[in-house]
């Protein structure tokens, strides 16, 4: 397959340049998968296996969005449901008058956030890039709500306690105003579990992983796959999360719907293929830009979306002259997925480095764009 060969060549160059010790790349066309492993599992280590297990961090979000839409189809909840229906603890939240202001200087919320607001990250709470260390972000970090390092142990609370602690804080801005990254999906995961009456890992297993045969995917590394987990690095070759004492070996107290999963290239390609060929073509529903110009104007969107749109759990790019339409998302620990709906192609790149370098992203995006733009 020509597209796959182009991507493999690009990723081999990435590894040879020393950007990452190794990488697994995969391409699927809806019927077949092609997977290639390049380099080593760690500097001076063993050859990287094609079925290596990776921490996929924010590539969890597209899976959570797909799970949400399945529950909507089944009548368990609705996109326009107030989140307070399922999370009554949050019904009293107010909104900061000023992002970097005192936590008691608040105004009433203009509206109750909806399930769709969570999918579109319009809750009104998340990363605050426009000011330096605002008191609200420091308070959320101190409360153990997940504003720190992207590891399971950064949130030591079970979901009900997590919601109780979040309810004590005001929102950063009015719900629906801007696309503000990350936090909405933590809330969404708790909501889905309550609405369906099952723990979030159980929901994923029953609704997505087991039906699709994604046996290597979960909130903890499956016992049968532990010998395939590789280390995650940061700051060059400094170890961020090692294998023997990995934070992902045990079930987390808080299964994070925004970034808690591990998976493999093959499993993720299976999920990606299901979006276009299974369950009423969920990809067609997810991959529609649903943000207004104002919602896209916030600091989070300017940093993460770079002028592109956002659907349900995926970044969306429209086709243009020499630019193929695509949707997908990446993970901050070094993973990336794109689907090209007009060509029936999905591709993943799996590395383990925080943060992924621009060269790592380009190693997948550039050959795909070049091969599919004609």
Automatic annotation (TrEMBL):
Residues in coiled coil: none
UniProt-listed Pfam families: Beta-lactamase (PF00144)
Gene3D superfamilies (alphabetical): DD-peptidase/beta-lactamase superfamily
Residue span(s) of domain Beta-lactamase-related: 16-362
Name of this chain's protein: CubicO group peptidase (Beta-lactamase class C family)
SUPFAM superfamilies for the chain: beta-lactamase/transpeptidase-like (SSF56601)
Endpoints of the signal sequence: none
UniProt organism field: Kribbella italica
């Amino acid at each position: 397959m020509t597209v796959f060969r182009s991507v493999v060549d690009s990723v081999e160059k990435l590894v040879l340049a020393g950007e990452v010790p190794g990488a697994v790349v995969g391409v699927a066309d809806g019927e077949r998968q092609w997977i290639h492993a390049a380099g080593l599992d760690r500097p001076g280590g063993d050859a990287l296996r094609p079925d290596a297990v990776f921490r996929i961090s924010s590539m969890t979000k597209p899976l959570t969005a797909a799970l949400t839409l399945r529950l909507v189809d089944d009548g368990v909840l609705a996109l326009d449901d107030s989140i307070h229906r399922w999370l009554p603890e949050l019904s009293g939240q107010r909104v900061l008058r000023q992002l970097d202001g005192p936590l008691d200087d608040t105004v009433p919320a203009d509206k109750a956030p909806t399930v769709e607001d969570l999918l579109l990250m319009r809750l009104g709470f998340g990363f605050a890039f426009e000011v330096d260390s605002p008191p609200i972000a420091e308070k959320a970090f101190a409360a153990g709500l997940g504003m720190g390092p992207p590891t399971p142990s950064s949130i030591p609370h079970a979901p009900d306690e997590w919601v109780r602690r979040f309810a004590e804080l005001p929102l950063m801005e009015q719900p629906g105003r801007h696309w503000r990254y990350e936090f909405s999906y933590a809330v969404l995961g708790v909501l889905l579990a309550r609405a369906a009456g099952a723990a979030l890992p159980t929901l994923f297993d029953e609704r997505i992983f087991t039906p699709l045969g994604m046996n290597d995917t979960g909130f903890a590394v499956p016992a049968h796959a532990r010998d395939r987990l590789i280390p995650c690095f940061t700051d060059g070759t400094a170890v961020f999360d090692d294998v023997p004492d990995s934070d992902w070996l045990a079930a987390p107290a808080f299964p994070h719907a925004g970034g808690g999963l591990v998976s493999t290239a093959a499993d993720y390609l299976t999920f990606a293929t299901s979006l276009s060929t299974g369950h009423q073509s969920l990809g067609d529903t997810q991959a529609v830009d649903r943000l207004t110009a104002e919602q896209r104007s916030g600091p989070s969107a300017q940093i993460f979306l770079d002028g592109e749109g956002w659907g349900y759990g995926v970044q969306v790019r429209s086709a243009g002259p020499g630019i193929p339409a695509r949707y997908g998302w990446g993970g901050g620990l070094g993973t990336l997925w794109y689907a090209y709906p007009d060509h029936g192609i999905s591709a993943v790149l799996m590395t383990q480095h925080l943060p992924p370098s621009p060269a790592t992203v380009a190693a997948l995006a550039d050959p795909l764009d070049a091969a599919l733009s004609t």
